[in-house]
Fold these 2 entries.
Entry 1:
Amino acid sequence: MRTVDTINQLLAQLPVGLSIGAVLLLAALGLNFTFGQMGVINMAHGELIMVGAYTAFVAQAWVGLPSSYALLVALPAAFAVTGLLGLALEAGLIRHFYGRPLDTLLLTFGIGLVLQQLARDVFGAPNVSVPAPPWLAGGLTVAGMHLPYARLFILALAAACVAATAYYLSRSRSGRRMRAVIHNRDLAAVSGIAVRRVDAATFFLGSGLAGVAGVALTLIGPTGPTTGTNYIVDAFLVVVVGGLGQLRGTVLAAFALGLLNAMVEPWSGASLAKVVVFAAIIVFLQLRPQGMFTVRTRALT
Amino acid sequence: MLEVRGLCSGYGRARVLFDVDVAVRAGQVACVMGRNGVGKTTLLNTVMGLIPAVGGSVVFDGVDVTRAPTHVRVRSGMGYAPQGHETFAPLTVLENLKVAADGLPRSGEAIEEQLELFPRLRPLLNRRAGLLSGGQAQQLAIARALVAGPRLLVLDEPTEGIQPSIVAEIVEVIGQVAARGVAVLLVEQYLDVALGLADTVTVLDAGRVVHSGQAADLSREEAARLLAV
């Protein structure tokens, strides 16, 4: 009897784990470009997520779009806003720090603080809430498990973003150029690729995806100046565990961490669950420092 | 086609090249030789703009490209296969060629031309380049450098660490390319390969030109003396 109970309990946590995983995945997907592929430790990525969340807020509270379709407008708008913000940061600041990871970390940490303070000045320190569209109210009940529509929407959004990213990288001409530059800058340059322009495009995409993640976060919680900060460490961990720049690794790692978190939490509480997840990551990285996936070649190094 | 005059370059404060002159005419093979560490690769990297020149000039087809970024030089007709048969390892063979052929008016035909030149690559088109053998990777590297139809081909030790049968194929391709009127700037350690292909020979020592002249005027003994370790 006890085993059955345990299994039922674990199953009940499955949707929770999947939805935590989907949020982690959205937050990490953009980092997969800027950190995983370009190697830029962008501590301001969390603040880009926050800017995306406030874009959804602005769409409803300031522009006055009705909540029934504001979400669908906010998604592309947030992508554009944070993408352009990321582009400006790359061109104006981060570009001059390439090859200096520690300086980049401090620089982007500072940028993050500036953005947080800006958000406080513009929107006020207290959290704001963004009403979810009415068609996301309620949920499905499948086999005794309650699945809120908002969580299902985030899951679908994450899947769509992964599919679009995979298609872009493997099928499009500029995605191919991006992979070439990431693998070997000099060789890309001698193949006639303007590597600086590709850097900028990579940063635009990574930052834009942070905006999409921000909009998704408004569906499951309040929006505040530190909204993104809560996700930044987890997002970095997902990219490292998955293997730098490996899309499928990022996907697997996000869901693995999400599920682990959800399975442990009912027994241990939220704080201890976090400890367990971090401990598991430390053990995993001891055994496999390169992450789940790497590019295999015949070269020995 | 290519005129390098008084070229100086290096890494930070460490000077590697001093006052190097090299010239390559259309349809000719200019071979740069020298022992390890004399600056051959640095010379090619500076010609391609991967390392900034500290002094002197690089003139390609009458245009001074000394300050031009690498991709601009490549698009103006300079092709480069760097040392160590480098390819884009995560990309397939076909993608490697497409990366360099993108934006050409007839990229499909350009790739087809390379496959005729290197028939070994044809059955490997969908294999990831990181899984190729050294010889296959070198052929891909040269094909990638050629796919945009350059008027100057720069090759850094194309036969290094490659089995003899493929060396012979690569040497033949270099000869064919030059015969079509492409200028070839070649760094080569193997005396036989170098003297067999070269029209002119430039020997470097410690970053300076110590010999420069027609390959026909350079005897094996003299070459061996200049390159002696």
Note: The mean pLDDT of chain A is 89.
Entry 2:
Amino acid sequence: MKPFDYVRPATVTEAIAAAAQPGAVYLAAGTNLLDLMKGNISRPDRLVDVTHLGGLDGIERLADGGLRIGALVRNADLAHDADFARSYPAVAEALLSGASAQLRNAATVGGNLLQRTRCAYFYDTASRCNKRDAGSGCDARHGENRSHAVLGWSEHCIATHPSDFCVPLVALDAVVEIEGRNGRREIALEALHRLPGDAPERESALEPGDLIVAVRLPPVASGFAAHARYLKVRERTSYAFAMVSAAAALRIESGKIIEARLALGGVAAKPWRARGAEDVLRGVAPTADAFQEAGWRALTDAKPSGDNAFKIELARRIVVRALALAAAGTPARLPALPASPFASTTGAIHA
Amino acid sequence: MPELNLTSAPAHLRHGSNIGQPLTRRDGVLKVTGQATYAADNHPPGMLFAVMAVAGISRGRVVSLDVAAAKRHRGVVDVMTPDHKPPLAIDPEIKTSPFVFRMEVLQSHEVRYANQPIAVVIAETLEAATEGAVLLAPRYESLPALVGLDAGESFVPPAVGVGNPTENHRGDVEAGLASAEKQIDAVYETPPQYHNAMEPHAIVAHWDGDKLSVDMPTQGLRLSLARIAELFGIAHDKIHIRSPFLGGGFGSKGFLAGPQTLGIMAAKLVGRPVKLVLRREQMYGPVGHRAPTRQRLRIGADGEGRLTALDHHARTVSSTFDDFYEPAADASHTLYAAPAIRTSHDAVRVNTGTPLFMRAPGEATGSIALESAIDEMAWACGMDPLAFRLKNYAEREPISGKPFSSKALRACYEQGAARFGWAKRSLQPRQMRDDAGLLVGWGMGTATFPALMFQAEARAAIRRDGSGVMEIGAHDMGQGAWTALAQIAADAVGLDIDRVTFKSGTSDLPDAGIAGGSAHTATAGAAIHSAGAAVIAKLADLATNDGRSPLFGAGNAGVIARDGRLIRRDDESRSESYAEILARAGVAEVEARGTGVPNPAAMEEYAMHAHGAVFAEVKVDPELGQIRVSRMVGAFAAGRIVNPRMVQSQLFGGMIWGLSFALHEEAITDRRTGRIMNANLGEYHVPVNADVPPLDVVTVEEHDPHVNALGIKGVGEIGITGSAGAVANAVWHATGVRVRRFPIKIDDLLTQP
């Protein structure tokens, strides 16, 4: 492993100063970063450990009805917070469908947002990758790309963002609070991740030294609690990244959808908000036909980036199913196999 | 290494003999408390760490390595390259026996496959060695890689598996197909699969002058010792290998691997002990794997569902520099009573490490294709898959015409089907749904694996205090040899298991043969059994020839050894303890050796196989295509069961591997570079707990008087066979979609709206 400096700043200000230096990166739980370092994909000069910073690990109800989640809250702690799961069931379900119990116990909210793609060519240092080595080329484009992007990709990069957590967060208009060299600012989570375009090495809107300190859910987000689900199709029952996933959240009154939220995971370099499909659903009855229409609309712009045309059809079907599940109502308890098509299977004991 | 103490576990309750009792693992406490010392847990004083640099291309040559940069890195002691390495006594390219495979030990700059070792960095710390390997920054002259089953001109290899004929036939297949009322002609593909034992290959090598001590996991202590001796030109008695525990072998640790040889070379180069452990991704190349196959099955049946012909052809691959051919088509030799059978193989050469043995080599790949095809044929005949198999039940081994030494497959079918509830299965596919609307399918497969025997030797002793000793260089790969073989040993010397010191797992002990082919318990067990009988015979000589013994004049054949006493067979009131016999004779101990060998006469006369029947239930989301196995029942007949608990675990493990074969495992190979793109446990999928349903294993009573003295057939591999096909057939029954390329994927099932 490449030798590196390890610093443990006492304050956010110190952390930002330390991380703004070239070659420096933040370290939280390290569930992704340490693997990248062991695999020689990331070779930082300096790790700035933020796990000892105070005040970043709380879950705080805001006066306006929103919720503020500290960047260092562990995925498992958040998912198992009963109030949180009741108010934002699709987010809890997404969290619990990700990784393994051990990883969820370690992984943090901020780190989850910034995890890197799982594209095999990004991880394989013998392959060309524009993300890892800007301008070197993309070996995934004509390689083994069955699980790659069908939306928002470019000739320079067809990788997907692997987060489950981000998918319902984007659907619920989550906001990211950032501390940087010029103070605090906020951006919509939807604007945090960038599509590859001709600069896939630039993955987010963050500047050097920027530290995500919290994720905020706006007051309206809890209004979907009665009809919110996350659905994730993957190639084994647990401990696998999504082939395609969807978060669907509805507000239904008097038999009509007042507002719909829909986002897709595993299809693009960012969690993919499907606003066109949301528009289709506004003001209509929650019927199978309406969901089919939304499914078509959500994937209108999709195109295969390789041997992955099936993902487009799969994504349509997942949209339809996720909407149907949401319309049917959030279950009183999180299923034993969260987000799984087998969630309803009796006798399932754990994920 | 401290002396192993396997008897610290609480005493077990037993009734009667040791064999047949479900003892828990005698090494279990050591393992769960972290005291079991695996190879990489050894840290002799002064030890250095070695890390391999491996090829990033799959064909070409290394033209430069920045050795200076690596050596400048703090902590790096030396860099071993083709230009700087200790000499070997023989060229590693020379195959000195059929069980020697070519290995890459820096003998040239040529690259033959991705992940081939191209240098070894030796350093004071693992981190320094790891970074040193990165700093080598190899440059290559690259040639186009040979990738996949159509990489080049195919050829017919001289043999497949271990010396099996490439082609085999009985009867007239073309005539049988021509006369058939129903025919199927289908092509199945299986992917390359790689070894992912929890413990990667590792070695700690320590030279002391011309003596070498080695800690490494091996399934073949003596074979490894002989190979080290010839590679390094040292006498066998100068080498000591310790391999008390393996974190899984599955065929990958049968032979000394290239990386292990590199560890010994590195220790020699620097004159200090060296540890070398493969990184997970480095397992995908130099330590063997299961080759991909493309199998064509043509089957004919008459109007009553009786097979008229079975033609099974398998295409596979080997490396560009050595020969091992997955004998997939041989699976069709033994199961179904077709009057005409033909099996054949061909192959192409590709840029991979040489494929080698992986749990049920040939049987696993062949079984999923054969069992799928039989299922397709049953459907074509409009018959229930079990009824179809019973209609074509082989009373004699189809390819040879020999009778079976024993075959309780009919009972396996009956008991497995009853336990599963098979009789309620709908004939038509896509008929069953559960309460949640998921498609439900039931499938089955027949399991079979040959009952093999190798050669082994054991040494037994009875000591003055009446306790026993059994010594054999056997291998516990996790399957439970420390327990099962000790049970056989205890019965062999007529003692309670806790009165027998069982020594195993080191190369200075008698040769136990290789722990492979599901034959270790049979082979080592036979040697133990015969050593025990021999030492008891010596003890009996002492007693029956001594006028002062109550057994005087009983004659050798006239005593029984039980509970530490010799007892006169025709008069149980006359007996004497081992301790009394030895005390009177004034000897510290009596000892004897015994061997376990195959019986060629019996093998000539009988076909010897274990059998089983596996039934699986899957659920499939009708729109989304995700699959989950919800139930599996396996009924197996494998001769005498030495330890039912260990056997159940072995069969569970095999069935899970079968599930994995059908639904999960696949090395994704870049079609251009030949590099494996998922060489890690995150992306190379094996089943996780949530994928494995409640499993039910039934062991069917089977007495086999011919297979070996103890009647043991072995259970290490059979669980995969049948299981993979059962799952695949259940997916068809659930969906109506017949997938012939494995593993079955979500996209395969999205064809229906």
Note: The interface with chain A takes residues 56-57, 74, 114, 127, 130-131, 134, 434-436, 438, 619, 621, 623-626, 628, 630, 663-664, 668-673, 675, 677-678, 680, 682-683, 685, 687-691, 745-747, 750 of chain B (CB under 8 Å).
